[in-house]
From TrEMBL:
Belongs to the isocitrate and isopropylmalate dehydrogenases family. It is an enzyme of class 1 (oxidoreductase). SMART domains: Iso_dh (SM01329). The lineage of its organism: Bacteria, Bacillati, Bacillota, Bacilli, Bacillales. This is D-malate dehydrogenase (decarboxylating).
Length: 360
C-alpha cells in the first residue's frame, strides 16, 4: 500500500477546526480505495507558537518539512501578531523555500452555491487561475530609507525573472492545452512599463509554441470588471503574484463566497513538497465556536488528490461539495445554515461513502 506522508500545519483561528474536516475526507477516500493511505504529522506552528517563541515556525522548520510528500495548511494570522510577520515568516517562506511557483485557484460556480450576479448561468463561471507564486510583486525586494525622517522613502520592487515568468506562463499553456480551453493573460503593461511589458512579451513568445491554444490578454482593471460583467470569457487564466491574489478574491465573491475558495501551491517538478490550503484566512472572530466553513479546506484536499494522481477522487470530492450545497440542509452559518463545522465534514464523508464504485 502506498502511504503519503502529510505535514499538517493547522495554524491559527479556525484553522485547526477546518483542517480536521479535510483530514476526515482524505481518510474516507483512502479507506474507500484501499490502495493508498495517509499518515499525518502535526506541527504546532503559527501565531500562538510565535507568542511563545518569537518565531512563526521552528528554526529548522523548512528542513523538517522537506521529507514530506505534501503540506496541509489550515490558516495563518491572529490579532496581536502583525500580518506581515505571520505571512512572511510561515506561508511565504514555505512557498519560496520549496519553489512552489504555481498557485492554482479554481473559480467554479457549483450548483447550489450563491452567486450575487444576475442573469449568469452556472456554466458561465468556470475559471482556473494559475498565479505566479514565488516572485513578482511579493519578492520582498526593496528598502526603507530615512525611516521616521521628513524625507523618508520606501521602495518596493517587483522582481520578474525570465525563468520565473516563462515557466509559469508555459505551465498555464500546458494546462490549457490539456483541458482544451482558452488561456487569458492578465497584466498592466500600460502603467508598469518594465515588468508588465516584459510579462506580455514572454506570453507572446511562449504562445508561439502552442498554436492550438486560443489566447487573450487584458489589463488587470478591465479583467476585474469583465469577471463580473462577462465571466464566461475566462477559462484558464495566468497572471502575476499580486494580480492573482486580488482577482481570485473577486472570483470567490462571484462563485459562492470565500468559504469555498481553495488553493494549491505546487512545485511541479516534485523536488519539494507542495502545499494545499483554504484561502479564507483564520477568522479569529468565530474561532473556537465550531461554526467555521470547512468546504474550502475540503476542496483543497481534492486538489491534493489531483496532485497525487487521483483525479477521479479529486473530482468526486468536489461533486460531494456540490451535492451538499444542492441539498441545502447541512451548511454553516456563513452559508445561511445552522450546522457545525464537524457536521459538514461528516456529511461530505457520508456522500463520498456512497460513491464506492469510484476508482482513480
Amino acid at each position: 500500500m502506498k502511504t503519503y506522508n502529510i505535514a499538517v500545519i493547522a495554524g491559527d483561528g479556525i484553522g485547526p477546526e477546518v483542517i480536521d474536516e479535510g483530514i476526515k475526507v482524505l481518510k474516507k477516500v483512502a479507506e474507500l480505495d484501499g490502495g493508498f493511505a495517509f499518515d499525518f504529522t502535526y506541527f504546532p506552528w503559527g501565531c500562538e507558537y510565535y507568542t511563545q517563541t518569537g518565531r512563526m515556525m521552528a528554526e529548522d522548520g523548512i528542513e523538517q518539512l522537506k521529507k514530506f510528500d505534501a503540506i496541509y495548511l489550515g490558516a495563518v494570522g491572529f490579532p496581536g501578531v502583525p500580518d506581515h510577520i505571520s505571512l512572511w515568516d510561515l506561508l511565504l517562506i514555505i512557498r519560496k523555500s520549496f519553489d512552489q511557483y504555481v498557485n492554482i485557484r479554481p473559480v467554479t460556480l457549483l450548483d447550489g452555491a450563491h452567486c450575487p450576479l444576475q442573469n449568469v448561468e452556472r456554466k458561465d463561471i468556470d475559471m482556473l487561475f494559475i498565479r505566479e507564486n514565488t516572485e513578482g510583486e511579493y519578492s520582498g525586494a526593496g528598502d526603507w530609507l530615512f525611516k521616521g525622517q521628513e524625507h523618508e522613502v520606501v521602495l518596493q520592487n517587483g522582481v520578474f525573472s525570465r525563468k520565473g515568468t516563462e515557466r509559469i506562463i508555459r505551465y498555464a499553456f500546458e494546462t490549457a492545452k490539456k483541458q482544451g480551453r482558452s488561456l487569458t493573460s492578465i497584466s498592466k503593461a500600460n502603467a508598469l512599463n518594465y515588468s508588465m511589458v516584459f510579462w506580455d512579451q514572454v506570453f507572446e513568445e511562449v504562445s508561439a509554441d502552442y498554436p492550438e491554444v486560443k489566447t487573450a490578454s487584458y489589463l488587470v482593471d478591465a479583467a476585474a470588471m469583465l469577471m463580473i460583467t462577462d465571466p464566461k470569457r475566462f477559462e484558464v487564466v495566468v497572471t502575476s503574484n499580486l494580480f492573482g491574489d486580488i482577482l481570485t478574491d473577486v472570483g470567490a465573491a462571484i462563485a459562492g463566497g470565500i468559504g469555498l475558495a481553495a488553493g494549491a501551491n505546487i512545485n511541479p517538478e516534485g523536488t519539494f513538497p507542495s502545499m494545499f490550503e483554504p484561502v479564507h484566512g483564520s477568522a479569529p472572530d468565530i474561532a473556537g465556536r465550531g461554526i467555521g466553513n470547512p468546504l474550502a479546506t475540503i476542496w483543497s484536499a481534492s486538489q491534493m488528490l489531483d496532485h497525487f494522481g487521483y483525479e477521479a477522487y479529486g473530482k468526486k470530492v468536489v461533486d460531494a461539495i456540490e451535492q451538499l450545497l444542492v441539498e441545502d440542509e447541512v451548511l454553516t452559518p456563513d452559508m445561511k445554515g445552522s450546522a457545525s463545522t464537524s457536521e459538514v465534514g461528516d456529511r461530505i464523508a457520508d456522500i463520498i461513502g456512497n460513491l464506492q464504485s469510484v476508482k482513480a
